[in-house]
Amino acid sequence: MSNKPIAVRPMSENEKLLQAKFYEAIVAQSELLDKWSERLLTLELAVPSLYAAVLKLAGGEDAIVTVNAAFYVTFGCWLAALALTLVALFPKRWRVDPTVLKQDPARMAQDGLGIEDFFEKSAQYKRGLLIAASVLFFAGVFSAVFTV
């Protein structure tokens, strides 16, 4: 190993700006996921209502929906998707040590998350819930075809 000193230089303004934008993007992930959950919630409330309205209009006064397995799958998926979206939308309590930027993974359980860990973990948590909710919702839309 060489005892030669490593050359360093101060960060340029462009490098500082890139670093600042990187951290802004990490912080903004949670807000973007909240917007996704709001839009998904709107869809999850509108589509079943439209489904019922179209069935009523298409069938007239004597509209009857056949209650079969596809009916239960459709509304079960829609209900589960709605529940997951609401869980993602409501804040979760995280244990964070504000004096630590990035926590050692072995110490997270006892000491809490670091600040950077908090933004990363909360975004991962919401992302997982919203992906599952989206898959369930569109599975419900797909199975709705088989209810008529």
Characterization of the model:
- By secondary structure, the chain is an all-alpha fold.
- The protein has one domain.
- It is 69% helix and 0% strand.
- It has 4 helices and no strands.
- α1 packs antiparallel against α2 (69-89) and α2 packs antiparallel against α4 (115-144).
- The termini are far apart.
The helix tally amounts to: 4
Say what oligomer this is.
single chain
Helix-strand pattern, N to C? HHHH
Main beta sheet: none
Amount of beta strand:
under 5%
Rg measurement, Å: 24 Å
Which secondary-structure class do the elements indicate? mainly alpha
Number of strands: 0
Distance between the termini: 75 Å
Globally, the shape reads: elongated
Percent range of helical residues: 55-70%
What's the overall average pLDDT, rounded?
88
What number of structural domains do the residues give?
Answer: 1
List low-pLDDT spans.
none
List keywords for this structure.
single chain; 148 residues; mainly alpha; 4 helices; 0% strand; elongated
How is this structure best summarized?
The chain has about 150 residues and is mostly helical.
What's the structural blueprint in terms of helices and strands?
Blueprint: H1 13-59, H2 69-89, H3 108-111, H4 115-144
Helix pairs in contact: 1-2, 1-4, 2-4
